[in-house]
Protein 1
Amino acid sequence: MELQPVQIVVFLAITALIAAVTYWYCKGARHSENGEQEYFLAGGSLKWYFVAGSITLTNLSTDQLVGMNGNQMALLAWWELAAVVGLFILCFLFIPVYYKYNCTTTTELLEKRYQNPHIRALISILFLLGNVFIFLPAILYGGSQFMISMFGLSTDPVMVPGFGAIDPMIFALSLVFALMGAAYAIFGGLRAVAVSDTFSGVLLLGLALFVTYVALKSINFDFSGIPKDRLTLIGSPDSAIPFKTLFTGMLFIQIFYWSTNQTITQRAMASPSVKEAQKGILAAAGIRLLIVPAIIVIPGIVSYKLYGRIENDMAYGQLVGDILPTFLSGAFAAAILAAILTTFNSILNASAALWVCDIHETYVNKTPNIKRLSLWVSVAMVVASLLLVPFFATQDSLINTVQTLYGLLSMPILSAFIVGVLFKNVDARAMIISVIFGVLFYFWMLNPLAVNADLTTQRVGLHYIHLMAINLITMVVLALLLNRVVFKKKAQWDAREVFNRAG
């Protein structure tokens, strides 16, 4: 599809409307006098529907819609189905604990449980590394690729040293998306982010469902002729998600992402009460179960029947461009832009919270100018993420690359939370050593330069999701052993006390 004037008009009108409504709502809201609470937790005032909307759209971005549909198979739905378990664990276990300990960041819980600020700072650094090196550039690339494939915006590729030939339009669109997303995070704080997420989410989910319906109608709801491996939910050992991984690393990935990840949990921590937060989380779980799996795999499967295998995550954009009426394609482009911006600005705001609260106030200045400092943190992360877009532009699968690489950080982070919540009398130094070991151990097992097409490694010969489970268990055991043998402390089981006090 070639870009038409009506598409541009609809696109700009909807984008401007979302921005205007967000500004209007935030301007009339009651603000907190506590700078941290206001900027990072919206003054503790988010209603359940904003929590649900923000959690949904912070996660549902181009790496899901573009990356998962780009795989053109049903198997990727497991990421979303398993997410429901992670949301329930957040709702009934972690959120009461965060509120009980009065946390601004998830990592603040670690400082209070280990009684040590350094473990908090280390985990924050790992979160920041994942955000700047993995999530932010992946979001920018995925959104740019969608727009290019949907509207036929490709230009002659240029050679990028170290990466090869890349379409320069990817860089241009990534820059625009980054600047727009940063504006929300820098000038509006979490309140503006959450409100824009919710309004954008209604638009995106509605249009994505419509795309799914039109896609099915385009093949007369007939899946005949599509290979069984594209339709099955039982993954073979050499598939993207082998069935056995659902019972090993998949569960731990979901617990990490939904229950400890600042970008997600920050929304639920910004409600006036635990019950209000829980209502929002359960609503987000319902959306995740009933709506999201269909919209992230069915269009991709339909595109396989219509076009065959399409490389470089271009399937979704091409399908949408072909099946939607001209004016609706402009609206859908606005919805995709909203998804890009909301996820991007959510990560920037969460990253600023981690840097300001966990690192800067501890080691540099206890009373910084929060908005000014957050501005510079956001600028630095935007620049770094733009420089890394070429890496993701050269990968075969966006979603598989993101999940594989994030294992370097996700399981070490989760291990610190598991030990910290379940046990007391654990020396923070034991956990710090274990976390650093876990990063290096996963890197060694994964051997990133030798990952095979079936996402196993030549060194270990196991799928990366299995490697995550192995790494997590190893780190927990190592931390407890170091605590006992090296630091002469006996860890004591404390889970019942923690959750009882929180309840």
Note: The first strand starts at residue 158 and ends at 160.
Protein 2
Amino acid sequence: MIGFRAGRNHSVAKRSGKDPIRVGVIGYGASFNMGRAHLTQMKAAGMKPVAMAELLKDRREAAAADFPGIETYGSVAAMLKKSDVELLAIITEHYKHAALAVQCLKAGRHVVCEKPFAVTTAQCDAMIAAARKSKTLLSTYHNRHWDGCILQAMKTIRSGAIGEVVRVKAHMANYEQPADWWRSSKRISGGVLYDWGVHLLEYTLQIMNARITEVSGFAHRGFWAPKTAWKKDTVEDEGFAVVRFANGTFATLCISSMDAKPSPYWLEVTGTQGTYSFDYGRWELITPGKGETVTRSGKNPPDEGQRFYDNIAAHLMKGEKLVITPEYARRPVHILDLACASAAKGRTLKAKYG
């Protein structure tokens, strides 16, 4: 496995029998067709789509068309009562993840949450406690753990090409009024740092193989709010976090919607012997030479995101070690939670979970 793993893992009994694991989804939203994407990847991993729950009738009809024979339900309670589904992927607004996960875990079902895992550390704790009590699998859909860009980055960094890692800088910015939808509501989404920030932090935590000690958060808000329907609930215009690790390294994260120099997401890793930077498509390695700086660049390899559900299936059927444990999934949420609280309090906050 790549990176630092914190906390103890609860045990999940290996599933008996050879029949495919029966899987389903909660939420079949139209925004990114994620319900279809999850069920398709589950099926590719040898599991069997059998059920889905969705409030909207047209989305239930879409699922029935995509997966003929699938059971469709208008509520999670009805699905848990009537269906023999074993594993559920929760694909809803961020603030609903925890309550739905606990409901399913208490009913003895395995759960995968879309990212971010939850909105607060306390929500993560409640989910982990419920999974331990019911001895069920709990994970979050960190399929980007296997993005080609981070796989290439880890290969290069582990080769010693930039020496000892000192700092990671993660950044994504534009100058654009937030759209009036749930991701623009702080209460629903968690804030500007949560959506793409959780992806960039997951990359960062693979690179920084060390315990988190403290987080400082900064935020600007109020510029876009008067222009949006969300008004006071609109996410921050910009969020910034500084994460300190026990080995002396540190990382920064910035997500902005008021930066006049727009940029897609990118990470820059500074080491004692060079700097490695990458975005989704390409990488660049800069190293000092004898009297000159050497710059190399290239294209990132393809993504291997299917490995997420391959690992979930292997964990349940064969007892293979789970890569994205709930304790691991809690780490980026803990950073985001601390960053928001730090910004509100105006001071650095100690980490509870490393």
Note: The chain has two domains: 22-144+306-325, 145-303+334-350.
Protein 3
Amino acid sequence: MLEVKNLTVSFHTYAGEVQALRGVDFAVEDGEVLAIVGESGCGKSVTVQSVMQLHKPDTVDYKAGEILYNGENLLRYTEKQMQQIRGKEISMIFQDVMTSLNPTMTVGKQITEILKIHGQKDAGKNKEQAIELLRAVGIANPEKRFDQYPHEFSGGMRQRVMIAIASACNPKILIADEPTTALDVTVQAQILDLMKELQKERNMSIIFITHNLGVVANIAQKVAVMYGGIVVESGTVYDIFYRSKHPYTWGLMNSTFRLEQDKKEELHPIEGTPPDLLNPPKGCPFASRCEYAMKICTEQLPEQTELGTFHKCRCHLLDPDCPVDIDEVRKHEQKFS
């Protein structure tokens, strides 16, 4: 349904050219949930905003690649054509829900507005549909809530309103950019359950952006791990959690608390800092933080190795001529397997 090929994106800033994405590849099948994970600044949000074409034209430069939706390259679409795609075919839930909702408009009007934009002109029917959408996302007394403003809702309720808006036109793909950020754990679970329910009812595909690996295990079928503007590893949830091959993926796993973990056991953070994308390294972006880094890692970006039907990884450790003791690597991998 959606395929991103070799997406390379730069931004023009006062400090210079930021090479935000450098050859991103992934695909989303019909009715599938893909999670994109990685630490802040790795390119997750830039990737999905590129899919929606939300960047200011005078600041962004699409150097290479394609974003294929049902075989059509969205990078060639005009703004008028994209307006027909956004909300109707592909919708997005943003991270900061309070700034995503208009504080001067009732939530009902904000839902009916998108229905009107995409051709449903009957005001009465639009109101009925908006009320049903509010009810569907678990908002009590939706007839009253229809006429209320965003500030009259809690954070979790505002996120439910955003989901109602995003799902109003039954999009084929729903993009959720860290939708549970700043919500307490109980509300996070409720929002995730709601999204899974809607996904099953409507057979939507979902691209879920998160840094929370627990969320990934809960909702996704496939995972793409991003670092330094590239996808370093991708595969099924089982591939990433139990058969991962990239040291960065191992680092993410080892820095995550597990229920069976002893409370006295320390977490193992990934030492160092992410690369400066104003001047990205020519080799593997993770080389400066990787305990297995070799000379070639700093000089050459590793090719993508196919490890299975969906499992792919960019790492020189997978080269047959790699001098690193593979048995030691496997021991490291088994820490969290």
Note: The chain has two domains: 2-220, 226-333.
